[in-house]
Amino acid sequence: MKKKSIFFVLFLSIFMLIAAGCGSNNASAPQKENPKEEKKEEAANKEEEAVSGASEEGSYTPYEELKDNYDIVIIGAGGAGMTAALEAKAAGMNPVILEKMPIAGGNTSKSSSGMNASQTKFQTEQGIQDSNDKFYEETLKGGKGTNNPEMLRFFVDNSAAAIDWLDSIGIRLNNITITGGMSVERTHRPEDGSAVGQYLVKGLVTNVQEQQIPLFVNADVKEITEKDGKVNGVKVVFNGTDEKTITSKAVIVATGGFGANFDMIEKVRPDLAGYVTTNQEGSTGDGISMIEKLGGTTVDMDQIQVHPTVQQEKSYLIGEVVRGEGAILVNAEGKRFHNEMDTRDNVTAAINALPEKNAWLVFDSGVKSRAKAIEQYEKMGFTVQGDTIEALAEKMGVPAADLKTTLDTWNNAVTNKNDAEFGRTTAMDNALTGAPYYAIKIGPGIHYTMGGVVINTNTEVLNKDGQPIPGLFAAGEVTGGLHGQNRIGGNSVGEIIVFGRQAGVKSAEFVKAQ
């Protein structure tokens, strides 16, 4: 009987995980005609998310170990939430993490390109000359001058320390590349060049477990409570049925953005109706709504980033690292049409200006060897391949002569370090000459919500008068202001670590002062 029981529990656990991944939150849409239709195509996305959490899934804190009170409640087990928990624990606190999804990671698991940081020890070791001021100015330019200057200054000035902190807990990001809108290699990746997200999540979960920080999944926080003008806990539903009230002296909201909530998106940006989204289905803006009920305010809610390179059928992000390692974009005629390393909004606009509103990302075996995320894209069936440029063109359905001319012209531009056609100046270290050749068909998709709740550099949530709401902190994509009107690729991972750390430190200071 014992063996039968064990097999039944194992089967039930796997079934529940799959069922959760195929839920009806309408996280993304495979076709622009009907973004709210449930999709079997999301299964591949869910499989990848499961990979990031499956090894840890059995080690999440059992429900029966839940306590009625903690020093700090952290809502959300993405990068910001787990980082905050580790810093709070290091400061002597007893924090708890509550995650509404069946696994930890959130949108962090989907991050691919890397983490931007300036003046890092790894840049110095590799002879890369960078400065915080240059990082600041390029990010401000990318955000069209609308970034919150205090938040941005704090972000860049603490970015190198964030890289050091990760390294100190066994998460090393010493492989450096570049993303659009940057002039210097400052996008830090795992040593093998693989996607940053799953590596980061696995490392943070491991540290959370080692520090014995309770992390509950399937824990859906419905309300942040307050008493006498101070936040004092949360109301949460476990496993869809058990309602609990947990008290605390501080709450950190790290619930992510609202990129999977089409109703919220269409209210502020009706022009985005019908786009696919790269967001995991838990990104529904819960934290923003809860904070607004407490008097918190929002900023830049209509600033929603559309990523230019998304595989449309599976709503799957093709990371900027592919272009950062040398890939080019071509249209249905096999011709380049824009500077691939321009900011995301400009590249998106260029693709949308094409009659077909999609394009091909073209690269060679060299790019594939340097951007490990491509292996995942290949496994998921996104790539077409040819031993020659002509063979690739046939697979793509574009004129072979035109694609050959495009690649010859581009390779000459790389050799001469002069892109006379479109003025590209970065990610031109390697020509596309290594067979076999590859291509992925892409189009724009909703990727990131720059807007969110207003915080200060202490990560305190501010009310309409600009005053902190006592005991309430927030970090990550749930907040707004840092990125302005356009986020630079690699800055979101930097944000969750920099401000996640700050939230843990400052909430601990608040609790100690009570």
From TrEMBL:
Q: Where is the composition biased (Basic and acidic residues)?
A: 33-49
Tell me the domain of life: Bacteria
**Co-factor requirement:** FAD
All residue ranges annotated as the FAD-dependent oxidoreductase 2 FAD-binding domain in the record = 71-493
Cite the Gene3D superfamilies for this sequence. FAD/NAD(P)-binding domain, Succinate dehydrogenase/fumarate reductase flavoprotein, catalytic domain
Keyword Hydrolase assigned to the entry: answer is: no
Q: Where is this region: Disordered?
A: 26-59
UniProt keyword list: FAD, Flavoprotein, Oxidoreductase, Signal
Membrane-spanning segments = none
Query: Where does the signal peptide begin and end?
Result: 1-19
- According to UniProt, the name of this protein is Flavocytochrome c
Q: Which organism is it from?
A: Niallia oryzisoli
